Amino acid sequence: MKNEKLKNMCIAGIFTAVVFVFTAYLHIPSHTGYTHVGDGFIYLAACLLPMPYAMFVGAGGALLADCLTGFAVWAPGSVIIKMLTVLFFSSKNKKIICLRNIPALLPASAICIGGYYLYESLITGNFVAPVSGIPGYITQSVLSCVLYVAVGFTMDKMNIKKMINGGKSI
User: Fold this and answer.
1) What is the overall mean pLDDT for the chain?
2) In the beta sheet, which residues pair with residue 35?
């Protein structure tokens, strides 16, 4: 049990760093911030780790990215939004890409798109102007979903879940 927690903490730490890098440094600047594929790695973490660890990955990676790139005003919203997106995925399947996790991409994307629109509306006090950010949020969600599926299939071919679990099936 103790080794399991330590293993999950280490994997969560690695994923948090990956989310941070793919969010903070490998992004496309936009008028509201930036468009990135870091969410795809949050989804992968949610399929590999128990829920609390996956929530930490989403919140931690987004928080670091926002605070260390000059977009700290977005950090509170990002933390909540990214924690909510992992709720739709399951780490209890043998594969990352499965009938449970593929449909999870839709509500996770909707939370991202709607959440950032709502958060921007609240911080600007304007519910009309933030509509212009929606195409960027949609692009971010679509690219993150593509990354999740591509990397997830690759990880499934490599039997990553079995390797992480010490050769045991879930």
Assistant:
1) 94
2) 28
User: Is 0.85 surpassed by the pTM of this model?
Assistant: yes
SS (H, E, C) the chain: CHHHHHHHHHHHHHHHHHHHHHHHCCEEECCCCEEECHHHHHHHHHHHCCHHHHHHHHHHHHHHHHHHCCCHHHHHHHHHHHHHHHHHCCCCCCCCCCCCCCCCHHHHHHHHHHHHHHHHHHHHCCCCHHHHHHHHHHHHHHHHHHHHHHHHHHHHHCCHHHHHCCCCCC
Q: Domain segments of the chain: what residues?
A: 2-164
Model confidence at 169, in pLDDT bands (50, 70, 90)? low
Domain 2-164 listed as CATH 1.10.1760.20: yes
CA-based torsion, 140, 18, 168, 4: positive or negative: negative
pLDDT tens digits for range 59-68:
999 999 999 9
- Phi, psi (rounded to 5 degrees) for 28: -110, 115
Kindly state the average pLDDT of the residues 9-38.
91
Contact between residue 36 and residue 26 where contact means Cβ atoms under 8 Å apart: yes
Q: Are 160 and 48 in contact (CB under 8 A)?
A: yes
- Asked whether 38 and 73 are in contact (CB, 8 A), the reply is no
